[in-house]
Specification:
The complex is a heterotrimer of chains A (308), B (261) and C (266). Chain A is an alpha/beta fold and 308 residues long. Chain A is 39% helix and 28% strand. Chain A folds into two domains: 200 residues, Rossmann fold; 44 residues. In chain A, helix 5 packs antiparallel against helix 6 and helix 6 packs parallel to helix 7. The radius of gyration of chain A is 24 Å and the shape is globular. Chain B has one domain. The radius of gyration of chain B is 19 Å and the shape is globular. With 266 residues, chain C is mainly α. Chain C has a two-stranded antiparallel ribbon with strand order 1-2. Classes of the chains: A alpha/beta (308), B mainly alpha (261), C mainly alpha (266). Chains B and C meet through helix 2 and helix 9 of B and helix 2 and helix 9 of C. Bound molecules: adenosine-5'-diphosphate and magnesium ion. Adenosine-5'-diphosphate sits at the interface of chains A and C. Chain C: It comes from Microtetraspora malaysiensis. Chain C: It holds the Pfam family ABC2_membrane_6.
Chain lengths: 308, 261, 266
């Protein structure tokens, strides 16, 4: 469905000089600052997958999504989405994808939500009958009925995000890009968004690329993640594999009689009862627990390793 | 009392520099405008024996260049600023400062004007050359009428700022004001050319003190007792505007406080 | 063809939505129209005041000048009415609004044009048409057709310059000042017989920035004054076509620059 090969994006900006004559120098000299936002990224995503595209701030996630949608032209490399090159065939590509940017609404700010949805229906040539059906489904899935008539600028962030999701899926695109859709939302709203994504994927076999740095999103939705940092792919594969491959060892946490807590690493392959017995022989234990490694720990470790 | 106002003036000046590329283009546009007027008027005058309204072509060109320079430097900025700050609610910071709101705005405008003068400095010789301006015989009269005219201009701008507290939208009003004031200031035609009722209207409005009156004093079209009378009327306008501003401000301030509460 | 019909239909839908949004700021809308009329009005008021004292400018009578002015104003209004939102392009780029536009399956320029209707310019159109009709010299049917074509061509000339300059905003250049200046030249210098400005300026206003082709050149044709022009008469007769050619060129520049659009950092 989506094929990306050695994708690279270099941003070029005229170098800005400081000082009183700075602007003039900026205008006259042809010096540029270059910044490589995406640096040789390759991956393939098949139909119906939900992939978490993960990375810290400034990793190049949004830039990748913008190239996938055809907003930006890649500096080099290849993108194919459903057999099309997005930037060359932008309009055809636009019909096949729904996009939500968590930071910026795609809705018409001054108009009631319903007007925005109608306009989206018009822009994507959705026939009236199908539009009514889609709208009904969106309202049910996302609970839009309460604020359909409210101007978008008066919606809460959670409501607005639900409106954006509806606008992105109204025309049933086979592909959905979500760029930090849960950023700034409260727990309830986050949950609603996640449920909607899961439901859309289950019902319509929609391919979803989900950009986030909220690991809870990923754990709730994705089987596969692509981890990037500084524009490069650090890991691409299943979450479970990631945890096994990179997991820090499990830990045994014991509470001693004198209120002291100590942790012991459980080396791979060593039977736990044996370790407990050994610890118990040396210390008076009051309580003990085994701590499983979590995704967060795993990812922190990968980033730390890539720094070196 | 003085320190915050000086700060405000500095901000106004910096504002001018922040948009310098736009300002530079508008300086170029100013030079083009002076050139246009020069060519058009030269063509109009060609082949005429007597000078209409007793104004020689040289005096007329000098007049137009001056009037345009003056209008450029004194371009009101505070209605825009006030509009923006009222809409975004940041006006509350201005209102909560111990120095009054109107003095702050006036200081901002003064800083902006000073910045404009600095930016304009390189263009002044060009304008003087294109406009063939020679030294005046009434330097004191020119300085006096211009300074008082500037005060009137700032007070009118303040009036528009205050109106913004009611309408909350002064973007279009200030544009309209700018156009009307430029036209009636006589930046394209001296007011003495305005025919009939238009001439009477232009003469009655205060806009002429920002352009026509000082420039006409400079080129000698107004002289002697006329200068004295102009200064007196300017002082009268300032007093009247001060009264109006004071009255309206009291109400506007009240309105803002209610809105905020 | 079906594409064009679809684009027009969507243009209209989007435009209506934009108007509904703008109607929430009614007072500003009304004053905006007044300001538009005042701006163009003060330009003509200048001519009127001057002609009160002087019978002719560069050998042109008040009536001829009024006709020239009418042609220029009508052309200008025909350009601004659909293209007024181009003025805000710098802002659209800086605020990332263009991302939104590029996500939709519709020509980006059509979407941008549909963001706003230059209602303020309705006053210009009216004023221009009135001047044009009042000052219209006795013309045959062929000349009337030429006049209509010339007004549309003039609108396209202005639109072309505006679009080409605005394209630079896609590279995050600050184009506002330059565009305001070009606009100023069009509206201030376009309404006079160019011969007034002298050889060099006339040359620049013909061949560097094609201000002359908006109204002066075609008006000279209609007023039988092609002898004064600095272009050969056949070129003057073909002037309406220049607008089409320039606009096509400007559209190519625009499309190329769109490829270089860099979006915003967030
Ligand atoms: N339009 C742009 N111009 C210049 N630099 C940009 C632009 N967009 C993004 N960048 C830079 O590219 C890098 C990646 O940005 P982005 O893709 O937005 O990161 P993410 O979405 O992962 O936080 C950042 O360093 C950012 O500053
Ligand atoms: Mg991002």
């Amino acid at each position: 469905m989506i094929r990306v090969e050695s994708l690279t994006k270099v941003f070029r900006r005229p170098h800005t000089f400081s000082g009183p004559l700075g602007p003039l120098r900026t205008l006259l000299t042809r010096r540029y600052d270059e910044r490589t936002a995406v640096d040789g990224v390759s991956f393939e995503i098949s139909a119906g997958e939900i992939v978490g595209y993960l990375g810290p701030n400034g990793a190049g996630k949004s830039t990748t999504v913008k190239m996938l949608t055809g907003i930006l032209t890649p500096t080099s490399g290849l993108i194919e989405v459903d057999g099309r090159v997005p930037w060359r065939d932008r309009e055809a590509n636009a019909r096949a994808v729904g996009v939500v940017f968590g930071q910026r609404s795609q809705l018409w700010w001054d108009l009631p939500l319903i007007d925005s949805l109608r306009l989206v229906g018009d822009l994507y040539d959705v026939p009236a009958a199908r539009f009514a059906g889609s709208l009904r489904r969106m309202c049910d899935l996302l609970g839009l009925d309460d604020f359909l008539q409210t101007p978008v600028r008066q919606l809460s962030l959670g409501q607005r995000m639900r409106g954006d999701l509806a606008a992105a899926m109204l025309y049933d695109p086979p592909i959905l890009y979500l760029d930090e859709p849960t950023v700034g939302l409260d727990v309830m709203a986050k949950q609603a968004v996640r449920e909607f994504i899961a439901e859309t994927n289950r019902l319509g076999r929609t391919t979803v690329v989900l950009t986030t740095h909220d690991l809870a999103d990923v754990e709730a939705l994705c089987e596969r993640i692509i981890l990037i940092d500084k524009g490069r792919v650090l890991y691409d594969g299943g979450i479970d594999d990631l945890v096994t491959a990179y997991a820090p060892p499990r830990r045994l946490v014991v509470e001693l009689a004198d209120d002291e807590t100590r942790t012991f690493e459980i080396a791979a392959g060593r039977p736990i009862p044996e370790l407990i017995a050994q610890v118990a022989a040396e210390h008076p234990i009051r309580d003990l627990s085994i701590r499983e490694p979590d995704l967060e720990g795993v990812i922190t470790r990968i980033y730390a390793e890539s720094e070196r | 009392m003085i320190r915050p106002l000086a700060g405000m003036a500095r901000v106004g000046m910096r504002f001018q520099f922040a948009y310098r590329s736009d300002v530079i283009m508008s300086v170029v546009a100013l030079v083009a405008q002076v050139f246009l007027l020069r060519m058009v008027w030269t063509s109009l005058y060609s082949g005429r024996e007597s000078d209409p309204r007793g104004l020689t072509l040289e005096a007329l060109l000098a007049y137009l260049s001056l009037a345009n320079l003056q209008a450029f430097v004194t371009t009101p900025i505070i209605p825009m600023i006030a509009h923006f700050r009222i809409r975004t609610g940041t006006v509350f910071f201005d209102l909560s400062r111990p120095t009054g709101y109107l003095p702050q705005m006036a200081a901002f405008q003064a800083g902006h004007t000073a910045g404009g003068l600095l930016m304009l400095a390189p263009a002044i010789p060009v304008v003087l050359l294109v406009g063939t301006i020679t030294p005046t015989e009434h330097p004191i009269g020119y300085a006096a009428t211009l300074a008082l005219g500037y005060v009137i201009s700032v007070m009118m701008s303040l009036l528009i700022c205050v109106i913004g507290f009611w309408t909350l939208e002064t973007g279009a009003i200030s544009l309209l004001y700018r156009l009307v004031s430029h036209f009636f200031a006589g930046t394209m035609v001296p007011l003495s050319f305005f025919p009939g009722a238009l001439g009477v209207l232009a003469d009655a409005l205060p806009f002429k003190y920002m352009g026509y009156v000082p420039a006409a004093v400079y080129v000698g079209q107004l002289s002697g007792g006329q200068i004295g009378r102009a200064v007196a009327v300017e002082i009268g306008w300032i007093a009247a505007l001060a009264g109006v501003l004071w009255a309206i401000w009291r109400r506007a301030h009240h309105k803002v406080v209610i809105q905020g509460g | 063809m079906a594409e064009v019909v679809r684009a027009l239909r969507l243009y209209w839908r989007l435009q209506r939505a934009a108007m509904r949004g703008a109607l929430q700021y009614r007072l500003n809308l009304v004053i905006g129209i007044a300001a538009g009329v005042a701006y163009q009005g003060s330009g003509f008021a200048f001519v009127w005041v001057v002609m009160h004292t002087f019978p002719a400018v560069g050998g042109w009578s008040l009536r001829e000048i009024a006709f020239l002015y009418g042609m220029r104003l009508t052309a200008h209004a025909l350009y601004v009415l659909p293209f007024s939102s181009l003025i805000g392009l710098d802002w659209l780029v800086r605020e990332g609004e263009l991302d939104r536009v590029l996500l939709r399956p519709l020509n980006p320029l059509v979407q941008i044009m549909a963001k706003r209707l230059g209602v303020g310019q309705l006053g210009d159109l009216l004023a221009g048409l009135v001047l044009l009709v009042v000052a219209l010299p006795p013309l045959g049917p062929a000349s009337i057709l030429f006049c209509l074509a010339a007004v549309v061509g003039g609108a396209l000339v202005e639109a072309a310059v505006s679009l080409a300059l605005a394209s630079l905003a896609l590279r995050t250049w600050n184009t506002l000042g330059v565009r305001a200046f070009a606009d100023d030249l069009f509206s201030k210098f376009g309404s006079y017989p160019m011969s007034v400005f002298g050889g060099a300026a006339q040359w620049a206003l013909t061949f560097v920035l094609p201000v002359a082709f908006v109204a002066y050149v075609p008006a000279s044709v209609l007023l039988d004054r092609t002898g004064e022009l600095n272009v050969p008469a056949p070129v003057a007769y073909g002037s309406p076509l220049l607008g089409v050619a320039l606009f096509a060129l400007a559209y190519r520049i625009w499309s190329r620059q769109l490829r270089h659009y860099q979006s915003t950092g967030t």
